């Protein structure tokens, strides 16, 4: 149920990651609703001078001299305070956040920068939130670059196989043309068994993205099992700057995936980056001019990206109504709505989703489903209904901090639940390919699964 009617009609820019993933789930600092912005600003503020009060022991005339605070302790305190001010759960996973700080300062040996980073990671782990995490300087810089339309990695779009829960394996959706992965002979549907020695069974797309990406020129070791084979290949690939096209499209003529044969405009959105909304708009207009009667929006294995891009794509298909609700730790609501600028508000629309559909992609699919604008086809989505902001620390490292939660227009909290499809496409059945030409060939064949109600 929706609680309260508070709505602030303002556009904001807030990023949420899903490592694009594929792999890039890119959070960013941006303009937030005022009630959230206030805590974010406080989280990123420079630490105020700290005063240590010495306690008098019995019989002591003067307090002992206070120990000097080291630079490593100051960096730890900077990270602790950022979480203290901005984190969405003010119970901090049912623990005293103050005691976490005091224990670290008293017991942790913070003598080297590596020690401080390790202690910050231990601190964040106590929150039980995999999306609130520490980013070393190189990874923080890579995260900022990733939302701009390029990443530094090996050129893999990855997703899940048909396994469930901890039995899932990371598989290749497609390698980018001329990327290190492509040149090494990695093919679609190959299994990635491990990344730098970390087994991928049960690994999330976000974790995979963190491991696959890194500093340009650095190496990553992959264990690849070719599709249909059993013998693993051990590969060492060198990361490079990968420019990606977030949107591809094609007109599928005479498709049988609808109740009656019709021309379907297929649009594949791989990630929500700065270019996504503009590219989707261009794709819709081009397909309209080619005679598209229905549309399929494919956001399978789209781990999210920039939240505003997801909202803008929803506005292209919705003329009115809520798109997403946002709740912070105080229950304060904000809403993002359609604004009457839709360019395709009526043509039948199907949205393809799977367990790799997360974050901004779930915002989009949830809005189109609740507003009865689209049929959702596929499998239950990932269930990442959280908003992160990124706080840069004084040494160039950073924190991704969960600051709020998404809800669908009907007030459903999708975190750890996901979006349930209207049409279930069982993993045991042949799945529509994600490349436009392959998709068109698939839906034009006799017996293609229905994608529209």
UniProtKB/TrEMBL annotation:
Residues 1-10 have a biased composition (Basic residues). Residues 140-213 form the PDZ domain. It catalyses: The enzyme shows specific recognition of a C-terminal tripeptide, Xaa-Yaa-Zaa, in which Xaa is preferably Ala or Leu, Yaa is preferably Ala or Tyr, and Zaa is preferably Ala, but then cleaves at a variable distance from the C-terminus. A typical cleavage is -Ala-Ala-|-Arg-Ala-Ala-Lys-Glu-Asn-Tyr-Ala-Leu-Ala-Ala. InterPro entries: ClpP/crotonase-like_dom_sf, PDZ, PDZ_6, PDZ_sf, Peptidase_S41A, Tail-specific_protease. One of its GO terms (molecular function) is serine-type endopeptidase activity. One of its GO terms (cellular component) is thylakoid. GO terms for biological process: proteolysis. PROSITE patterns: PDZ. Residues 1-26 are annotated as: Disordered. Keywords: Hydrolase, Protease, Serine protease, Thylakoid. It comes from the Eukaryota. It is found in: Thylakoid. Its EC number is 3.4.21.102. Its main location: other. CDD domains: cpPDZ_CPP-like, Peptidase_S41_CPP. It is an enzyme of class 3 (hydrolase). Belongs to the peptidase S41A family. PANTHER family: CARBOXYL-TERMINAL-PROCESSING PEPTIDASE 2, CHLOROPLASTIC (PTHR32060:SF7), TAIL-SPECIFIC PROTEASE (PTHR32060). Protease involved in the C-terminal processing of the chloroplastic D1 protein of photosystem II. This proteolytic processing is necessary to allow the light-driven assembly of the tetranuclear manganese cluster, which is responsible for photosynthetic water oxidation. This is C-terminal processing peptidase. It comes from [Myrmecia] bisecta.
